[in-house]
């Protein structure tokens, strides 16, 4: 790979991290951070971030806007597929019954998977449909804030 490509990719990754953090999500970069967040009592939304176009154009905007709702998860966290590999693998170990998918969203309660919004429900869809899908999960599984 050329030096220019590496610089470009580092910039893309940095921007993707900053975008999701500014939306209110906490970056989890180690398996220990993932375990601590997911095992905590209450509901946790995990956004599995990536550098693909559907993450930037659909998933991250949906992540940012879906949380402006009467009911929402207790915690908002994110892992970065392809970047923080051990943290992502640890998070996916909680997503029983679901294949690896990025970008994606997992809603958990007390460390147990409740539901997922997988890549096939993001890629090719518009951000509003993903927001509606996430808010439907919040309505069923989360408390009012």
TrEMBL record:
<comment type="similarity">
    <text>Belongs to the bacilliredoxin family.</text>
</comment>
<dbReference type="InterPro" id="IPR009474">
    <property type="entry name" value="BrxB/BrxA"/>
</dbReference>
<dbReference type="Pfam" id="PF06491">
    <property type="entry name" value="Disulph_isomer"/>
</dbReference>
<protein>
    <recommendedName>
        <fullName>BrxA/BrxB family bacilliredoxin</fullName>
    </recommendedName>
</protein>
């Amino acid at each position: 790979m050329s030096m220019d490509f590496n610089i470009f990719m580092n910039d893309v990754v940095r921007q993707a991290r900053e975008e999701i953090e500014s939306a209110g999500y906490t970056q989890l970069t180690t398996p220990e951070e993932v375990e601590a967040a997911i095992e905590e009592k209450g509901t946790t939304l995990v956004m599995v971030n990536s550098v693909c176009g559907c993450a930037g154009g659909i998933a991250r905007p949906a992540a940012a806007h879906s949380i402006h709702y009467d009911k929402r998860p207790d915690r908002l966290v994110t892992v970065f597929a392809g970047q923080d590999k051990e943290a992502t693998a640890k998070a996916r170990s909680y997503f029983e019954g679901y294949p690896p998918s990025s970008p994606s969203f997992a809603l958990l309660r007390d460390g147990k998977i409740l539901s997922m919004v997988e890549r096939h429900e993001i890629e090719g869809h518009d951000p509003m449909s993903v927001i509606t899908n996430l808010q439907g999960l919040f309505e069923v599984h989360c408390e009012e804030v």
